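Hey team,

Filing this mostly as a record. A colleague (T.K.) asked me to run one chain through the structure pipeline before their review meeting, and I want the input and output archived in the tracker in case anyone asks later how it was produced. No errors, nothing strange. Just documentation.

Input sequence:
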Amino acid sequence: MAPRIRQKFTWPAPNLDPPKTPSIDATYTAKPLPRPPPSAGSPAILRAIERYPHLFNHTIELDMTQYTRLMADHPNQPWANSFIDSLTHGWWPCHSGEPSQPKVAKGQQFPSVPQTDEDRDFIQALVEKQVANGWISPSFDDHIDGIEYNEIFVNRRPGKKPRCVNNQNQSGHNDEIDIDDCPITMDTVTDLLRILRHLHFLTPERAQAMADAWKFDIKAAFKSMCMHRWWQARVAILVAYRQPEGSPVKWVFKRHIEWRAAFGTRASPFLWTALNSSFMWICQFHAKIERPLAYIDTGWAST
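Output structure:
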């Protein structure tokens, strides 16, 4: 094993001090989550929301009464209250609110759509599923003033499932999101091993019985976060729909609005890991699960 990797698994002699839980510890000094600046609600966006309310959505996935009660005694109340505000009114991805400048080459269509039939079919199937799940708006045909569009494409890597990406680099949205405003703190397997080692040496009699351990995985984590309507207006997509055999055209293009956090928004990992860290704090201090850990959409604990 290379020294740079091995050093992560080298620890001093055990003592009674419990190992740290980085994602929970970070919540005590974290800044409140951002809210949309007034400039983000342009007159055109406000008109679009007023005229086409069915194309926008806000759904709260949590029991807010219970969540508010559980977070009421978190030591960092400005941070805790910012989650309640974000869950109640929609998440804002640290965007400046200023108009984004798409990166489009001369003569290039924007937003562009995938050119291969395989990718178009993949995106169509995924969008239809997400419309059924309530994550994306129904389709609409014509451009609406105030709605901004993003390219979507299929990211294919050997040995991995294909993933649909909302290309907010090309649309310029990510340029208006300062990476310094999106700090991510995640626990790792190394942190879990430290805790297991601590439990073993703290109570040697558990060496045979072993510690109780649990693990969870959250499906479609980003899609649990409903974005602010002002942001939804900035993340419409153009989708190619295959037409039945014998139709005069092979493809028809329709528009949708993404309601939930997208894979491709620079701030999505930050928003999700921050929310998940609040869940880990609740697990530790209310459910009495000692030192729970979380890595993106996966969690572990050992007691």
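Quick notes for T.K.: The chain has ten helices and seven strands. The two ends are 29 Å apart (CA to CA).
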